[in-house]
Specification:
Layout lengths: L3 E5 L3 H12 L4 E5 L2 H10 L4 E4 L8 H11 L4 E6 L4 H9 L4 E4 L6 H12 L4 H10 L8 H6 L1
Parallel strand pairs: 1-2, 1-3, 3-4, 4-5
Helix pairs in contact: 1-5, 2-3
């Protein structure tokens, strides 16, 4: 897996542990600790997934998410928090979060890693082969061939 993840987390130990765990699974992680940095980083690069804490210095996670959606409306976003205010959760759902992971003392780090992996690569090898076999020939063209013209 060669996926790019943006981790937006202000708690250093939490971020370092999750970053290291994801990197052991060959997932590239860019870690930022506040909302402004998240928006700057998102504007510079293409990410497959954003893991977003809600309690951030300078801006709340829902404010950051609203701005992230303007930069890339299709990036998958997992909210990573132990904060569950109903009006905020409703706003997050309306902004199109793709998942929610609880963090904190009772959270299982490897369960979090597995959830992230499943969002980055939702198909098994067998499912991928089946999909490709069912795809009509010529449905996709090789970009390299097109650039060579």
């Amino acid at each position: 897996m060669n996926s790019m993840v943006l981790l937006v987390e202000d708690e250093q130990k939490t971020a370092e542990m999750l970053k290291r765990a994801l990197e052991t699974e060959n997932i590239s992680v860019t870690w930022v600790s506040d909302g402004k940095a998240a928006l700057k980083t998102m504007a510079k690069g293409k990410f497959d997934l954003v893991i977003l804490d809600l309690k951030l210095p300078g801006a709340s996670g829902d404010e950051v998410l609203a701005e992230l959606r303007k930069i890339d409306p299709y990036v998958e976003v997992i909210v990573y928090t132990n904060y569950q205010d109903p009006p905020v959760m409703k706003k997050l759902i309306n902004l199109g979060i793709d998942g929610y992971i609880s963090k904190g003392a009772s959270a299982d780090l490897w369960e979090t890693v597995e959830k992230v992996k499943s969002m980055l690569d939702p198909f098994s090898d067998d499912q991928r082969r089946e999909l490709l076999a069912a795809t009509p020939l010529g449905a996709f063209h090789n970009v390299d061939d097109e650039n060579a013209r």
